[in-house]
Design goal:
This protein has 579 residues and is α/β, with parallel strands linked by helices. It contains 19 helices and twelve strands. The chain has a six-stranded mixed β-sheet with strand order 6-9-10-3-11-12, sandwiched between helices. A four-stranded antiparallel β-sheet has the order 2-1-4-5, covered by helices on one side. Helix 2 runs antiparallel to helix 3, helix 2 packs antiparallel against helix 10 and helix 3 runs antiparallel to helix 5. The longest helix is centred in the first third of the chain and has 50 residues. The protein is elongated. The chain starts with a helix and ends in a 9-residue tail after the last helix.
Length: 579
């Protein structure tokens, strides 16, 4: 809770103003029944009309003041709660941007979405209730009870019995429902995951005619969420019956005893009238408190989930005095061991000892799951090694400023992503200050200019969200061009030409050799034709180095490379290359 409330920031002032205005509103309301009793006892029963007029005007003034204070308090409550929600979203989003891949792996994407939408909305509503109703209700309750004691102590004791009863009932309900709401929000994550997965892969769903299966899967998640919600709301439904029991108990007991006191002459009619007003005010305060308790029960689960993200600290941090320049593109792996779950004993990479010269073109090949992507992820420090070290330019990557390192180690990841906006805007993700000419040159180097020129608006053509209006090969070439604009010391292509025909792939590699000869190039590929012209080729097997040599030597001496080469050549070569 403390972590969440720290996000109030500039809205603390609105919070305190809301509390002050609410207190003034309560004071005005508490005085109204007291003035009413004076009008009855000193005005109506005594036949004193001037007293009725005088205190009647005072009642109208108090009512208008209460209305004004209430309206202003509501405005300040809305500002403070909405501001808290806005700050929470910004803080969560900013913190997510600092996460390493290992941090992101702890939270599912749907889970993060739920936290930034449903959970924050719950906290926003609960906070508004707390600073408005949770301030108003206790003050109203306390002041009403004080006024009741002032009128008649014996009748006031009836309220304590009702309050004790409600505290026990509401306490039990809150404890049980809190556990259920924890499960509800986990089901929200599952529901969002189902929707996101289905919408993202809708083409595959339709291609395999799996709409009915997806409908059933979604219905199952929705039904589980429904059952838990009904269970929680069913328990909360006991609030109103419990409240009514307390209300009727107070009304009956006060009416019975109050009538006896009036007959005995120890209580006036005006006092009994105001006492009933204070009873209703007190019990309404209890009802509002029960609503607040319900809202807090729901929001506590959300607060905990939000705090998990806010308290998550990045696994990768910069040193106190980081190195701010990458000298060259030399890469050294010094007996590196790496696992995605530290201490699990299941290494993705084991004893990698590898040394690459600056400006070299290195091919990386191997079977699925052999550790190719894991290897290059360590170069730009998307993860940290468990043992050993990875050096770029002769310096351990952990000694660099992360931003400096990643600006000089440009990666085109296996999953290519484009963002909504023009082609130029997407390209300038690589370099926000790149000129139009530099963008064109990068596209020529990536062989992307040939299809961009055919588009109706050229480089100003709009890319739809996720790059849905371009082909897989076009998307890959735009991502390569975007990476080239960074003018990096190291360029990593993680299977980034898999959707490109071999003729274009060859032109891209030739362009790299001519236009960025000083850049170290690491090309991960599944097909031999993409790496055979590299200076050296790394063959990985089960997270270990099986061989590291030229294409010719590997064909002579390495069984794994021979098998890959033979299977591709005997199968007719690549899809557009003669055997």
């Amino acid at each position: 809770m403390k972590k969440v409330l720290q996000q109030l920031g500039q809205y603390r002032r609105d919070t305190f103003q809301c509390i002050t205005l609410t207190a003034l509103e309560v004071i005005m309301e508490i005085l109204l029944p007291f003035v009413t009793s004076i009008i009855i006892d000193r005005g109506l029963e005594a036949g004193n009309l001037p007293t009725v007029y005088r205190y009647g005007i005072l009642m109208v003034a108090l009512a208008f003041l209460s209305l004004a204070f209430g309206a202003l308090a509501g405005r300040k409550a809305a500002s403070a709660s909405s501001g808290l929600a806005a700050n929470l979203r910004e803080s969560i989003y900013s913190n997510i941007q600092t996460f390493s891949f290992s941090n992101i792996d702890k939270f599912s994407v749907p889970g993060l979405v739920t936290r930034m939408t449903t959970d924050i909305t719950n906290v926003q509503n609960a906070y508004m209730m707390v600073i408005r109703v949770a301030v108003r209700a206790p003050l109203n309750l306390i002041f009403s009870f004080i006024m009741c004691l002032f009128i008649n102590v014996q009748l006031s004791l009836m309220f304590l019995i009702a309050v004790a009863f409600l505290v026990v009932v509401l306490g039990v309900i809150m404890v049980i429902t809190l556990k259920i709401f924890n499960q509800v929000f986990r089901r929200y994550d599952d529901l969002n995951a189902s929707v996101q997965e289905n919408v993202t892969a809708i083409r595959v769903v339709k291609a395999f005619v799996r709409e009915d299966y997806e409908d059933q899967k979604f219905s199952k998640s929705s039904r589980m969420l429904y059952n838990l919600s009904v269970k929680a709301e069913g328990l909360l439904a006991f609030n109103n019956p419990a409240m009514m029991i307390a209300v009727y108990f107070c009304i009956i007991s006060v009416s019975w005893l109050g009538a006896q006191f009036i007959v005995g002459g120890t209580l006036t009619t005006g006092d009994l009238t105001s006492l009933f007003s204070y009873i209703m005010s007190l019990l309404m305060s209890l009802m509002m408190l029960s609503m607040v308790i319900v809202m807090i029960s729901m929001s506590l689960a959300s607060v905990r989930r939000i705090s998990e993200v806010l308290n998550e600290t990045p696994d990768l941090t910069d040193p106190e005095n980081p190195v701010m320049e990458v000298p060259d593109g030399r890469i050294d792996f010094n007996h590196v061991n790496f696992s995605y779950k530290h201490g699990s004993g299941k290494n993705a990479l084991s004893d990698i000892d590898l040394h690459i010269n600056s400006g070299e073109t290195i091919g990386v090949i191997g079977g699925t799951g052999c550790g190719k992507s894991s290897l290059v992820n360590l170069i730009c420090r998307l993860y940290d090694v468990d043992e050993g070290s990875v050096c770029v330019g002769g310096v351990d990557v952990r000694s660099y400023d992360t931003e400096v390192l990643r600006n000089q180690v440009s990666v085109v990841l296996q999953k290519n992503t484009l963002f909504s906006g023009s082609i130029l805007k997407n390209l300038r993700w690589g370099n926000p200050d790149a000129t139009d000419e530099e963008c064109v040159e990068a596209c020529k180097a990536a062989c992307a200019d040939e299809f961009i020129d055919r588009m109706p608006d050229g480089y100003n053509t709009r890319i739809e969200r996720g790059g849905n209006n371009v082909s897989g090969g076009q998307k890959q070439r735009l991502c390569i061009a975007r990476a080239l604009l960074k003018k990096p010391r190291v360029l990593i292509l993680d299977d980034s030409t898999s959707a490109v025909d071999t003729a274009t792939d060859a032109r891209i590699r030739k362009s790299f050799a001519e236009k960025i000869p000083g850049t170290t190039k690491i090309i991960i590929a599944q097909r031999v034709s993409s790496v055979e012209s590299a200076d050296r080729i790394l063959v990985l097997e089960n997270g270990r180095i099986d061989a590291f040599d030229t294409h010719e030597n590997l064909l002579k001496n390495n069984a794994i490379y021979q098998e890959i080469y033979t299977s591709q050549m005997e199968g007719g070569g690549d899809f557009d290359q003669p055997a």
